[in-house]
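Notes from the 1:1 (GR / supervisor)

We went over the backlog. Supervisor wanted to see one worked example end to end before approving the batch request, so GR pasted a single chain during the call. The sequence is below; no edits were made to it. Supervisor asked that the structure be written out right there so they could see what the output format looks like.
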Amino acid sequence: MKLRTLTQRLQAISVGLLATSFWVGPTSHFVGCSSAWAQENDRVTPIVRAIRKAEPAVVNIQGNKTVTNTGTNGVSTVQEVNGMGTGVIIDRRGLIITNYHVVDAVQKIEVTLADGTTTIANLINYDPETDLAMIKINVDKDLPVIHVGRSDNLLRGESVIAIGNPFGYQNTVTVGIISALHRDIPVNGSQQYTDLIQTNADINPGNSGGPLLNIDGEVIGINVAVRVGAQGIGFAIPIDNAISVMSELVAQYRTTGSHGLVCSRISTDNGMQLVLDEYRSNSSKESSREFKPGDEIVSIGGQKVETPLDIELALLGLPAGETIELELQRGGETLVHNVVLPRKTSVSDESDILRMAWDKLGIRVVPVPAAQVEPIGKDYEGGLKIVEVRPNSPAARQALSTGDIIVGVMDWKTPNLKHLAWVMANNSFQTASAAQFHLLRRNQFLKVAMTPDRTKR
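Structure output shown during the call:
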């Protein structure tokens, strides 16, 4: 999917924040404090409470990107455009969910928090098919996190709230209802959004990536598009779908292997619960009898978990080999198991390959399937997506960036880490003055010559 096509056909939307303070006009010195308090309290409606609950976890996003326009005469012109959008904080350490088209090709992603603090974010991972991306800001304090609702029980006609940065008007709040569910919206002849929430809450360019809230202040969708030329027709990605995608993006970003927990979020008489569907043991020494389908997963490493994303976030940053406590509920009984975090598959090989790519090239990569490199041809079985570039490294000097997908080096394809290791161990690569890297960048095929760092062993 070409995101320029997306933005031409659909205008992205999102949600921002309403200011945390609400002005109620000057208070007369002759009005009793209790009377003034009562008047304001009467005005704190459920909508106001929902906004106040969610707004600290909503951020504004801005950044410039360079676009190429081709006129009817065939002449191409390069133009720098100012982009804007919205994001939602999903982890206290600074992880933010937004739309991919908001941050795609943006060289400097500027994020403004609810308290007015401005900082720079890095693109960590993304999924072009669903137009979702994960960015991260570095912070020295715990950040407020959005409250996650559910989208499997939404009702047409129920009230919803959008917060965002439409046309640069920060902290804008609009209110509407859910107009329809399960909408499929075509983008072009081969691409479409699927299973969207339709709402009449006003959403405009600049709202993209922000939350659609229910009356309880919980995010139930990530705003993504509005029909051009129409009024009161906007769309959001259901939060259940977004959580599933973000879980996978965080899992790819983690340095440890699979935890083996396959689970679902279900509704019970006691509320929402995270229930185990299957446990895939990472070692023959581990007993799958310790885990049974239907077990409720309560906490991991002391952190309460309510969604599959919570599991990935609880494990994020922990090293392979560390033992963590997993608390379960089974038939009213509390069970605690110790689980050892595994390394990623192909343990020693993969860790060595990742270290070599970081040391010699200055990149950290994750494998991606063939579907993500299909725009350059069906002959490619996959590639290696760059998720981090080390400053002043060979990759940085050649302007490689996060999101680039390496599909080949010199004369060889690189669908996975083993292929990359073989190439980097090959004499032709080691003796070449510069090796040619074949990249997929925003659906365009590029070739970049890069000289590895020979001083690293």
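Supervisor's comment: Confidence is low (pLDDT under 50) at residues 1-31.
Batch request approved.
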